[in-house]
Prior knowledge:
The chain contains twelve helices and twelve strands. With about 325 residues, the protein is of the alpha/beta class.
Amino acid sequence: MTSYKELGLVNTKELFEKAVKGGYAIPAYNFNNMEQMQSIIQACVETKSPVILQVSSGARKYANQNILKNMARGAVEYAHELGYDIPIVLHLDHGDSFELCKDCIETGFSSVMIDGSHLSYDENVALTKKVCELAHSQKDYVTVEGELGVLAGVEDDVSSEHSHYTQPSEVVDFVGKTKVDSLAISIGTSHGRAKFKPEQCTRDANGILIPPPLRFDILEEVEKQIPGFPIVLHGSSSVPIEYVHMIEKYGGKLTDSVGIPEEQLRKAAKSAVCKINIDSDGRLAMTALIRKILVEKPDEFDPRKILGPARDELKKLYAHKNQNVLGSAGRA
Ligand code: G3H
Ligand code: 13P
Ligand code: ZN
């Protein structure tokens, strides 16, 4: 049993309180490997932003949970070495069972998500409540994120073709019964790089897909029901068209890519949305640079010369998000 405090990590409690009051959102960036972790920390130290390092169960299988835990400890020391101690959270993304959440809590995670959004309402309440009871009774309080409403797209092993928006009428009851610390809601975002079907979008003069707007009316209604309560947005990559074009220029094929426009995320970050999840944009940036190097330098075979530029691009992307989209820069 390791407490997250031994690793130098923090839970989300105070970070979310400040973010809701300050009208910004904490970035939650997924990571599975060293280069992603380094670029996240470099960007967040440089922009003086708090950060949530999140690990999906797929990431746990890929990288091994003890390695990830020690990478989070390394991230804390790395930030210190870079000259600025930022608050760092280690969070389980889309936990799908009590056992997985328990395992992560015992490994040293400071925050877990229990995603019961695919269950019936009553089952979601019961499972989320059980995880909260365990997490909150630890010597060092572990924070819990729950989810109401279903996002379209792939959430780890669970995939859903259609989204179901969060019903604002349910949130007071859910938060009261479960005692969650934050709530992920569904207002039109979805996971992955193709967030909407082309028939749901319009096109600009260059044929680029323009997505339908997020349902800010639902967000506003949720905020009215639970004023000041921390809200989380999943599936919030913007799918930058430059990366899509770069990937396609160097041999990839990413048909019908479309994300959530940055202006809409900026607007959401100013509300009670205090955690914004971004994974796909990092994947796109990394893949774009890797493809470019492999094509432009066919004789290169040193992985450091391939992954190094990808890491630099990732850092630029994360710094941009903190400064210009989430508003978390300067808040650490
Ligand atoms: O919500 C999903 C995240 O992007 C994690 O994706 O399960 O492929 O690691 P993954
Ligand atoms: P994206 O696929 O939009 O990056 O969403 C990531 C996410 O929600 C992780 O939980
Ligand atoms: Zn998600």
